[in-house]
Specification:
By secondary structure, the chain is α/β, with parallel strands linked by helices. It is built from 11 helices and 12 strands. Bound molecules: serine (SER).
Amino acid sequence: MRRILVTGALGQIGSELVVALRERYGSEAVIASDIRLPPLDTLHPGERFEFLDSTNARQIQDIVRNGEVGTIYHLAALLSATSEEKPHVAWELNMGGLYKVLEVARQHDCKVFFPSSIGAFGPGTPKDNTPQDTIQRPTTMYGVTKVAGELLCDYYNRRFGVDTRGMRFPGLISYAAPPGGGTTDYAVAIFYDAIRYGRYTCFLKPDTRLDMMYMPDAIAALISLMEADPAKLIHRNSFNVTAMNFTPSELANEIRKHIPSFEIRYEIDAVRQGIADSWPNSLDCSAARAEWGFAPRYSLSAMVEDMLTKLRTRIS
Ligand code: SER
């Protein structure tokens, strides 16, 4: 059996993906890795965790060789707002890490998943129903690393036959990991503050429309794409995916159906507003549906209901 390596396993996607992969393929089949160490009480017998700085090719190589790894979910990266604060670190980690992962994958014949983003689009991209293949001229360092990452993954597939696959994720909403440096993170933070304080101060304008997806749909999509028949994949890097789009004001109205006294105020952060304004309002996901059966389940109302229930239990 060739194992699965997840980089950035303690991050937003990794925290839930590792659990899902262990359930599906068995604990023994999955190696979680991160540059941070997990809290000791979260380590269970039989579950493997490795310290990994994914800009260090030797460390990646050692884990892949010793762990007999056949698939890498390369999730270690900075999100959009943090990348704007530290563009040089974003380049080093988001690009440098991916390049090293692809090189190791080429040498050891591994399959690679690369998470791209709505951030791979820019102000010149058609905003509504954004096509799968269209103008990509992002104006953020995050976006630059995502477009370049998509191209690099396609290059490794065409030139060296590495089985690379990717998705352009919208804002991901989850209760497992706290919000961490993304522009779409308001849609996660709002739930914590709604439950704890009954009010939230939003850093985006009330009418900023962005694509979003609930984490269970993202995890299901990841597994579907990686299990898809390669002969059916025309696009590979990277598929548009989304499940819903809404504005902060629409999300607040939906939360009010459960917490009628909930209040939202706005203190606009110019950097994150600028990033959000450069991204699409809604993506066309027809290629993902046609090529590997993408079919998200959660709508805005179902997501809000589930988030409030799960997060209440978690917080209490
Ligand atoms: N959620 C990401 C961010 O806001 C977008 O891919 O940075």
